[in-house]
Write a structure and sequence with these properties.
The complex is a heterotrimer of chains A (356), B (123) and C (111). Chain A has 356 residues and is of the alpha+beta class. Chain A has 15 helices and eleven strands. The radius of gyration of chain A is 25 Å and the shape is elongated. The N terminus of chain A is likely disordered. Chain B has 123 residues and is α/β, with parallel strands linked by helices. Chain B has a single domain, classed as 3-Layer(aba) Sandwich (Udp-n-acetylmuramoylalanyl-d-glutamate--2,6- Diaminopimelate Ligase, Chain: A, domain 1). Chain B is built from five helices and six strands. In chain B, strand 4, helix 4 and strand 5 form a beta-alpha-beta unit. The longest helix of chain B is centred in the C-terminal third of the chain and has 10 residues. The longest helix of chain C has 12 residues. The termini of chain C are close together. The chains are: A alpha+beta (356), B alpha/beta (123), C alpha/beta (111). The interface between A and B is medium-sized, with 38 and 32 residues.
């Protein structure tokens, strides 16, 4: 069920034109957040939005305190990390607010715990290790604010504070929000509302030139855009298959293209993949503009990764991308300049006879 | 065994591919990391995973995976179901955890789609 | 069933924690996403994963796993080993894919 809830939340975010994966570069994020806030601040503008759905209405009507969890566990700054570990384990929770005299003084979670575990600092106090600067929500804020804040900060939960006296009254997680919304929507949250993202067919065939013996295929890849990942490669697969390449060769080419595309999406601002094929080989090039790779040798090592956790939770960024590409290729060249971008070129020989 | 037998063993729900349940499957690969699937999984295998995003279907399609079985009672998001339908890849979901899912299938004769990593890597 | 039995039956290579192999295995969990493992695995589980970075030790310690089996030929980093020794978490490795390792352990548990 959890996945369903998260998916629903993402949809919710998408409906408002927000990035579902909070993966935009900061500038883009801010921009998108702004477009999100506008309708709320100027209520009359809401009606000008193309479609107002039931969910959209609800995120404005419902308040944080309506859906938050009130049965919460807290710790005090004097608790040790060892005690915290026990509390998290017994209560099966991932983090907790730190409270002193009923006032919220910080938060502490499994990330802090893992850090202390790996550094052998389990006797340290929660007060020393907690995060003091805490982003909070007020109980009387509309859920729309909360959705916004979850996307902006990427946290899993926010403490909820009573506005007048500043006392901790609950915790809000994403699933609290979605559960709260779903309860009120009762059914079919997935019907009409998810039709907005159908405008991406056009990027698939930017440029294809094909004659009887060879073809060239090129498409753009936008940084951070997970939604359309792999679409163009599906086309590539069909074309290679039509050209008569044997399935194992097609698999190698598509896997390499997919990993290259994922790298561009995860790590760069955007780039381009081009594939050309003739009788005896397929050449694939991936170019991007972005931070580049500081240490190529390290990046080629299986298991080395600089990908953030959210990418890993999508099943990528586990340090397999470049090694996988190399495995698929007969030759591979990689050039990268820090601060500029990366260029990868691979060749796959068609050993199983010719392509036609 | 047939996909339909796998469905029974796992008490699974079929989201896509009712018409393909009679297909024969012999091998499986389990992973939560799509890059591992891309590196090691083989055509015509079952893919067992806890991930539900559409990239699971993309990955399965690229490797000519026979069917996807989601574990831990995951309900796939609509876009995943749609894509599986579009690419004609059976998509099932079982309440069992990946450990139990793998164990049950293995006990009924399904084997890993590769014997050892490093062996038979030629795509 | 203890760890030593599994190590013997599956011919696993032990990378650390040889002296902890007497521990009783109560169940198994397989997964590569730390949040999933933290959320859903149980105390006494043997954890099967292909992740090899040092956070796996912290997770295994937090969840009181009996030990970790790395699959797909994955090898622990030196940091991981160091932490595992300190936290007394046995780490074993196998060249088999997760499906096979799990299938075999499952069989041992159910016969």
């Amino acid at each position: 069920m959890r996945e369903g809830l998260l998916a629903a939340l993402k949809r919710l975010a998408l409906m408002r034109g927000l990035s579902s994966e909070r993966l935009k570069g900061e500038k883009q994020l801010r921009l998108r957040t702004l477009t999100f806030e506008l309708p709320y601040k100027q209520d009359n503008q809401v009606t000008q939005d193309k479609k107002i759905t039931k969910t959209q209405e609800l995120v404005y009507k419902l308040k944080v305190k309506d859906v938050m969890t009130t049965d919460i566990v807290t710790v005090s700054p004097g608790n040790t990390m060892n005690e915290l570990k026990e509390i998290l384990r017994i209560r099966r929770i991932a983090g907790t607010p730190v409270v002193e005299n009923k006032r919220l003084v910080g938060v502490i979670g499994i990330d802090d715990l893992i850090r202390c575990l790996s550094e052998g600092e389990m006797d340290a106090t929660v007060g020393e290790k907690m995060t003091r600067k805490v982003e909070v929500l007020y109980g009387d804020e509309p859920l729309a604010h909360a959705v916004n804040k979850f996307n902006q900060y990427g946290f899993g939960r926010f403490p909820v504070i009573e506005r007048k006296r500043g006392r901790l009254i609950g915790i809000l997680t994403k699933s609290d929000m979605v559960t709260g919304l779903l309860k009120r929507l009762e059914i079919a949250y997935h019907t009409e509302e998810f039709r907005h993202n159908n405008n991406n067919e056009n990027h698939v065939f930017n440029n294809i030139v094909m004659d009887k013996t060879s073809f060239h295929f090129q498409y753009r890849v936008n940084g951070q855009d997970f939604k359309v990942a792999g679409e163009s490669i599906y086309k590539l697969k069909q074309i290679l298959s039509q050209l008569g390449f044997p399935p194992p060769i097609i698999r190698r080419a598509t896997i390499a293209a997919y990993e290259a595309e994922m790298n561009i999406i995860i790590y760069s601002y955007g780039g381009c993949i081009s594939v050309s094929a003739d009788y005896d080989h397929i050449t694939l090039e991936a170019r991007d503009t972005g931070p580049g790779i500081a240490n190529i040798e390290q990046a080629m090592r299986q298991g080395f990764s600089t990908a953030p956790t959210w990418v890993q939770e999508l099943g990528f960024g586990a340090g397999m991308g470049l090694p996988n590409i190399r495995k698929c290729a007969d030759t591979m060249d990689i050039e990268s300049e820090v601060g500029k971008g990366t260029h990868i070129k691979i060749v796959i020989k068609n050993t199983n006879g010719n392509g036609k | 065994m047939t996909l339909s037998e796998a469905k029974e063993i796992l008490d699974a729900t079929v989201f896509v591919g009712h018409e393909k349940l009679e297909m024969e499957v012999k091998t499986a690969f389990s992973a939560d990391l799509m890059s591992d699937v891309l590196a090691f999984a083989k055509e015509n295998s079952l893919l067992l995973t806890g991930l539900t995003n559409p990239q699971v279907v993309r990955t399965a399609d690229m490797l000519d995976i026979a069917a996807i079985i989601l574990v831990r009672g995951k309900t796939p998001p609509d876009e995943t179901v749609q894509l599986a339908r579009e690419l004609n890849i059976p998509l099932l979901s079982t309440k069992y955890i990946l450990f139990e899912t793998s164990g049950r299938l293995h006990a009924r004769g399904i084997v890993g789609c590769i014997e050892k990593v490093g062996v038979d890597e030629g795509a | 069933m203890n760890l030593e039995f599994i190590v013997g039956e599956l011919k696993l290579d032990v990378r650390c924690g040889e002296d902890k192999l007497g521990r009783k295995v109560r169940g198994g969990y397989v997964g590569d996403l730390l949040s999933d493992v933290i959320g859903n695995s149980s105390e006494g589980d043997i954890w099967v994963t292909r992740q090899a970075h040092q956070n796996i030790v912290a997770v295994a310690s937090l969840k009181d796993h009996t030990g970790i089996i790395l699959v797909n030929g994955s090898e622990p980093d030196s940091d991981t080993l160091e932490k595992a020794i300190k936290e007394e978490i046995p780490i074993m490795v196998s060249e088999l894919p997760g499906f096979e390792v799990v299938g075999k352990i499952y069989k041992l548990m159910h016969t």
